[in-house]
Amino acid sequence: MFELALTLSFVFLSLGLVLATIRLLIGPTLPDRVVALEVIASLTIGFILLYSVAYDTPVLIDVVIVLALTSFMAAVGFARYLEQGGQRDDD
Amino acid sequence: MMTDIITSLFLLLGSFLMLLAGIGIIRMPDLLTRMHATSKAGALGAGLMACGFAVYFPEASLVVRALAVVVFVIMTAPVAAHVLARAGYFVGIKLWEGTVKDVIKERYDLKTHQLGSSARKRDD
């Protein structure tokens, strides 16, 4: 039962990762791609947490902390870059 | 046994919310509605999965770190979403064609990035 729940969670996260990657590839403007990257970062956080529960390696929580911090910094940095006049349109 | 049930509930709910974020980002028509789907579902999904981790490993150091992740995600996700939406609005993304009213357009000075409290005259 527990294994089934873990497998189902892995399937959900993988499907979400595929959909976010599609948006990252086709996204018409640069802000769309940045939002897709942020979703991918939070999905990766979920993946690492799920992996550490499934394979009994609790030390990976440190990686999760660093990843959450980095994704926030990346979002804020990208927003500053866009607003202060970076490349407006990537097509 | 009980721990397993609670952990699997947390993990299933969190990963399902993240799947909803993925569906929303592929399905919604423009940037702001996409962010509406992703920022809430993504943050709550990560928080719930960290809660599941904290239930499964009941040691003080791990629980504290998992709760730190929850607090950090809940605090930073709205800030990041706000900053990104603001930057996207100033870059000039197209809104969905079904948008009824763009209130910010009447009140924001796009040059100085100042928000007024009432509709202002535009010279353009």
Automatic annotation (TrEMBL), chain A:
Per the record, the domain of life is: Bacteria
**Membrane topology label:** Multi-pass membrane protein
Q: Show the GO MF annotations.
A: sodium:proton antiporter activity
Protein family according to the UniProt entry:
Belongs to the CPA3 antiporters (TC 2.A.63) subunit F family.
Ranges annotated as spanning the membrane: 36-53, 60-82
A GO CC term assigned to this protein in UniProt: plasma membrane
Q: Which classification does the entry list for the species?
A: Bacteria, Pseudomonadati, Pseudomonadota, Gammaproteobacteria, Aeromonadales
Instruction: Tell me the InterPro entries matching this sequence.
Output: MrpF/PhaF-like (IPR007208)
What are the alphabetically sorted keywords of the record?
Answer: Antiport, Cell membrane, Ion transport, Membrane, Transmembrane, Transmembrane helix, Transport
Q: Where in the cell is it found?
A: Cell membrane
Main location per UniProt? membrane
Which is one Pfam family of this protein?
A: MrpF_PhaF
* Name recorded for this polypeptide: Cation:proton antiporter
Native species of this protein? Oceanimonas pelagia
Automatic annotation (TrEMBL), chain B:
Q: Where are the transmembrane segments?
A: 6-26, 38-57, 63-85
The Gene Ontology terms for molecular function here are:
sodium:proton antiporter activity
Q: Which UniProt keywords apply?
A: Membrane, Transmembrane, Transmembrane helix
Under the heading Pfam families, the entry gives: PhaG_MnhG_YufB
> InterPro entries in the record, alphabetically?
PhaG_MnhG_YufB (IPR005133)
Domain of life the protein comes from: Bacteria
Q: What is this protein called?
A: Monovalent cation/H(+) antiporter subunit G
